[in-house]
Amino acid sequence: MRMRTSTRTAAVLTGLTLALGGTALVAPAAHADIPACTQMVAQTGVQITDAVTAACTRGVVGDLQTCVTGLTDAGVPGGAATGACRAAALEPR
User: Residue 60: which residues within 8 A CB-CB, separation 6 or more?
Assistant: First the structure.
């Protein structure tokens, strides 16, 4: 059984639309709020380094324990590290 070109094109376009639509729904969550996390770290006087950004990124994906550990290893006090990681997990406002 051969598919007509118009049917095949419609199927490909439908698949592409669904794939891109799914990406659009997932993309905003990936951003979460790294700037809020790094701003809270900066308020403690700790310099924003690659290690701090990496830790905040872990908070964005919901790995709060690794985020807190990374920030405390970078010199952020425990309570501030926890707050910054929680801020990272929230959607930007």
Answer: 30, 31, 32, 33, 34, 37, 88, 89
Task: Tell me the C-alpha distance between 72 and 59, whole Å.
Answer: 13
Helices marked H in 1-93 — which ranges? 5-31, 34-43, 50-60, 64-73, 78-89
Q: Which of 89, 61, 43, 58 is nearest to 69 (CA)?
A: 58
Q: What is the pLDDT of residues 34-62, one digit of tens each?
A: 999 999 999 999 999 999 999 999 999 99
Contacts of 69 (CB under 8 A, 6+ apart): 55
Place of tokens 């309570």: 79
pLDDT level of residue 92 (50, 70, 90 thresholds) = confident
Q: Is the pTM of this model over 0.85?
A: no
